[in-house]
């Protein structure tokens, strides 16, 4: 059973055009007391492709967050997030589950310090069902400059391994050989962010990541720069813009390999997103948006581009 994310749209150098209908639903509920709060959300999305039936899919994404205040300056946060993609023809192909735990301290009204740990499970259905687990441990800090500007910095150490996906070695020239051990990665990530919240919402972020691996095709480092901007054009017209650019360098650029846990459809690399939304009433709005993606396929260093134009309506109850 192939992994259908590597489909006709992700083939580099081959231009394809299609159309379709997308339905998105979101429901959420909040429970809060003076010291404790719980927030739950369920998002579903269905897409029917008019040209390529293999692209029709259903996405299921529930989330649950909890917040507990311990005294005046200590907090405990926990969350569970799940993402699952089921294709119309072949069923589940990709899912990930993230568990996160945070301990926060607020020594002053402007400064917040956080220690966190999270565990991520990836399940990918390709020619076989593959399992990956990723653990992260880190710290972050947030500082408020006045009422509108915040500065954030974080760093984390990560460890990823698979119980059934093999590591690869170098045989000769650009040939790879399958090793006896399974893939195991470790590395770190550093990020800096600044955000302004006022009449507009704007932010920029810089991320540096380095990974080492027992698989020769899994060693890389990258730098990511992103920014976003949201605001009003009129009292009932809104705009949203997101820009993200990534520079990724593999330790052995002449070797082609496959990253088993990657989902090529996720906008994790280069993208440009713009949206205009017009509020028609208190519960109905219309929108138009354009998205440009340049993502890495399952094969390392091989990228595809995708431009998506969407028009629709949003109903709130």
SSE blueprint:
Elements: E1 20-32, E2 36-49, E3 57-70, E4 74-87, E5 91-105, E6 111-125, E7 129-145, E8 149-170, E9 176-197, E10 201-213, E11 220-234, E12 237-250, E13 270-279, E14 284-296, E15 303-315
Antiparallel strand pairs: 1-2, 2-3, 3-4, 4-5, 5-6, 6-7, 7-8, 8-9, 9-10, 10-11, 11-12, 12-13, 13-14, 14-15
> Could you give the count of β-strands?
15
Q: Give the SSE string.
A: EEEEEEEEEEEEEEE
Q: Please work out how many helical segments DSSP would assign.
A: 0
Overall CATH class: Mainly Beta
The overall pLDDT, averaged over residues, is 89
Domain count: the total is 1
Strand content: over 45%
Name the strands of the widest sheet in spatial order.
1-2-3-4-5-6-7-8-9-10-11-12-13-14-15
The main sheet comes to: 15 strands, antiparallel
Distance between the termini: 40 Å
Please explain how this structure is put together:
- There is one protein chain.
- This protein is mainly beta and 317 residues long.
- The protein has a single domain, classed as Porin.
- It is 0% helix and 71% strand.
- The chain is built from no helices and 15 strands.
- Strands 1-2-3-4-5-6-7-8-9-10-11-12-13-14-15 form a 15-stranded antiparallel sheet, with no helix packed on it.
- A hairpin with a 3-residue loop joins strand 4 and strand 5.
- It starts with 19 loop residues before the first strand and ends with a strand.
- The N terminus is likely disordered.
């Amino acid at each position: 059973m192939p992994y259908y994310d590597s489909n006709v749209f992700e083939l580099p150098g081959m231009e394809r055009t299609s159309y379709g209908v997308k339905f998105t639903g979101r429901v959420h509920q909040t429970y809060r007391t003076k010291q404790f709060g719980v927030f739950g959300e369920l998002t579903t999305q269905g897409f029917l492709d008019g040209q390529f039936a293999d692209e029709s899919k259903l996405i299921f994404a529930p989330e649950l967050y909890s917040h507990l205040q311990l005294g005046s300056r200590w907090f405990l946060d926990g969350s569970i997030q799940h993402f699952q993609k089921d294709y119309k023809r072949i069923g589940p192909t990709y899912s990930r589950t993230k568990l996160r735990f945070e301990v926060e301290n607020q020594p002053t009204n402007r400064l917040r310090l956080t220690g966190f740990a999270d565990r991520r499970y990836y399940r990918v259905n390709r020619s076989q069902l593959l399992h990956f687990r990723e653990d992260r441990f880190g710290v972050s800090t947030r500082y408020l400059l006045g009422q509108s500007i915040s500065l954030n910095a974080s760093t984390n150490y990560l460890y990823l391994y698979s119980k059934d996906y093999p590591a690869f070695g170098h045989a000769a020239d650009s040939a790879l050989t399958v090793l006896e051990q399974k893939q195991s990665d470790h590395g770190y990530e550093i990020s800096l962010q600044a955000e302004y919240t006022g009449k507009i919402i704007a932010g920029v972020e810089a991320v540096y990541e380095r990974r080492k691996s027992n698989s020769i095709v899994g060693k890389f480092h990258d730098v990511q720069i992103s920014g976003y901007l949201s605001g009003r054009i009129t009292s009932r017209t809104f705009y949203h813009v997101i820009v993200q650019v990534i520079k990724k360098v593999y330790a052995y650029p002449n070797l082609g390999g496959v990253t088993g846990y990657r989902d090529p459809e996720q906008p994790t690399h280069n993208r440009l997103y713009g949206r205009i939304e017009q509020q028609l009433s208190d519960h109905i709005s219309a929108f138009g948006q354009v998205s440009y993606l340049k993502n890495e396929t399952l094969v390392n260093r091989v990228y595809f581009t995708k431009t998506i134009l969407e028009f629709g309506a949003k109903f709130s109850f």
